[in-house]
Amino acid sequence: MTGDRAVWLYAVAASRDDAIAPDGPAGVAGELVRTVVSGDLTAVVGSVPLDVFGEEPLRRNFEDLDWLEATARAHDAVVSAVVRRGPAVPLRLATVFRDDDRVRELLDERRADFVAALELVSGRTEWGVRAYGDRAALTAAVAEAKADAGTMTPGAAYLARRRAQLSAQETVERDAAERAAQVHARLLRRAAAGRCQPLTDPAVSGRRDWMVLNGTYLVDDDRTEDFTATVTALGAEFPGIRLELTGPWPPYSFAGVQREQT
Questions:
Q1: Which InterPro entries match (predicted)?
Q2: Domain layout of the chain by residue ranges
Q3: pTM for this predicted structure
């Protein structure tokens, strides 16, 4: 590391003069964002103080949720500004290096991975789709689908509906998972790539909703309307399942290139 400073990495882009805007956002330490170039790749970085962003201080600061939120927002603001100017691979929060030479080493060592990632995200944007289940509504929808009264007598029809309801109550978790899998599969057909992320813990999100899908999708920019229309259609197709579309986001889920800080 250089003196009392380290290098915080935001994103990697193909080498070009306009990777960052002169009037772009400041970095996580309020620093002026700059570039480190190696051949055909440009890293967008900032010099940050070790007493705040060194390994031990970071470990302590990450326990301060207010500090973490503010830092994450500043990091994302820089990444988003870079992505708006052209294809870029976002790096995860707190990717810190000793100096610019270490950043160049990363670009050289992982050049093929960065080039492949840039090709994947070019002309595409990340969108998130979360599915939330309503146990009562889902149970009722599944029970209605299972119950087939046909030409039964009223008494027999009632018993059939009651058995279907009890069965639906017992299988609601599985039914929700099956519907979430169908939603994900259908969205994958409208995306260049997609991933199921871990379900968010309500204690972390602050929401009590029953999440059954936390999907991220890399969508061609010229197919955005088709993708969003599919989300709307799927929300109407599956009673008891509510879909929530978020984005557009920088393609964090599809960067595919990481390395521990050094």
A1: GvpL/GvpF
A2: 5-121, 125-249
A3: 0.78
